[in-house]
Amino acid sequence: MAAVCAVVLAGCASRSEQDAAKNTAQRFFDAVSRSDTRAACALLTPRTRDELVVAEGRSCARALPTDRLGETVESADTWSDQALVNTDNGTLFLTEFDSGWLVAAAGCAANGDAPYRCVVGG
Amino acid sequence: MKRGRVKRVLRDNGLGITFGVLFLAALVGQAVAGHAQYNDQQLTHGAQAVSLLDFVTSSNFVVDVAENWQSEYLQFFLYIFATIWLVQRGSPESKTPRQAGAESDEEQKLGRHSTENSPKWARAGGWRTTLFSNSLGLTMAGIFLLSWLAQSVAGVVVYNADQLADRQLPVTWFEYLGTADFWNRTLQNWQSEFLAIGSMVVLSIYLRQRGSPESKPVGEPHVATDEQG
């Protein structure tokens, strides 16, 4: 299977991609924990940042709900340009850009068979 | 002299060369169209567009190519084996009912019936002749299985990326083999192949294409089987 992945695919989950996604998630949490919401917002995808601003009617740095997003990264899973990072308080979903992984949704909780409910980027 | 040889090679291999060129042209067209569609979807989902090179080496392109390949090779593999035993009276695609089965060594030019021009492994006897006797069907079956495997491996990557983009959990490869996505991709190709080959078998009983070896001669009766025009 690994050989098939190596030959046929560019999308099989690799350890370095998982580490890169976890790294972005941890930097996001670090920024949130030191209340540097400007830095945290810089780690959101453009779409998620725009949606937050429109939904809250304030700048991203002011609108980011820092108390419900988690603090510690636990594990990651990547598929193509999408990643899921499990944390001590819910789940993060990330998307890969040329600049690296960015947070597409944060503070997400399972919702039965329906999509996760997310505090940011639902 | 050289020009004459090129001309002869083109004439002697026109069928293979034409379909090889058509295949490459269609594959390039699929890549270009698929790339444009993929980037539209990426922008819709708030992700970034990718280059054509990134797209053709992605699971998205591989799964779309492989799901069609597997069904084509399944079609030929099944047809090659099914036509050994199953017949369709009146179809030029079929043997006569009397010929159903693997046929005699004499009919297949094997053993003492082989000639000096017979392929080496046809004359060799033992496992080599057995293997060579089934090499066409087995190769088609092998390519089918490899293509189907590639479809499943690329398919789970695409499926899981979509799952994550929709804020849902990914599945394992084994779980993916039981998903509607895998079987929808598979069966939508199989049904069209089975329809096409069934149509060919039956329509060729009553319809003709003058000059084509896929058809009976135009004046051949409908009931005639195993005749080529």
Task: Provide a descriptive summary of the structure in words.
- The complex is a heterodimer of chains A (122) and B (229).
- With 122 residues, chain A is an alpha+beta fold.
- Chain A has five helices and five strands, in the order αααααβββββ.
- Chain A has a five-stranded antiparallel beta sheet.
- Chain A is globular, with a radius of gyration of 15 Å.
- Chain B is mostly helical.
- Chain B folds into two domains: 1-57; 58-103 and 135-229, no CATH class.
- In chain B, helix 4 (59-85) packs across helix 9 (180-206).
- Chain B is elongated and about 65 Å long.
- The two termini of chain B are 34 Å apart.
- The interface between A and B is medium-sized, with 31 and 28 residues.
Can you give keywords for this protein?
heterodimer, A: 122 residues, alpha+beta, five-stranded antiparallel beta sheet, 5 helices, 33% strand, globular, B: 229 residues, mainly alpha, 2 domains, 9 helices, 65% helix, elongated
Termini Cα gap of chain A: 34 Å
Strand content bin of chain A: 25-35%
Instruction: Indicate the structural class of chain A.
Output: alpha+beta
Query: How is the quaternary structure best described?
Result: heterodimer
- Total E-strand runs of chain B: 0
Query: What's the pLDDT, averaged over the residues of chain A?
Result: 88
Helix share of residues of chain A?
25-40%
Q: What's the rounded overall pLDDT mean of chain B?
A: 93
H/E element sequence of chain B:
HHHHHHHHH
The chain-level structural class of chain B is mainly alpha
Low-confidence stretches of chain A: 6-11
| Strand order across the largest sheet of chain A | 1-2-3-4-5
Cα separation of the termini of chain B: 34 Å
Largest sheet of chain B: none
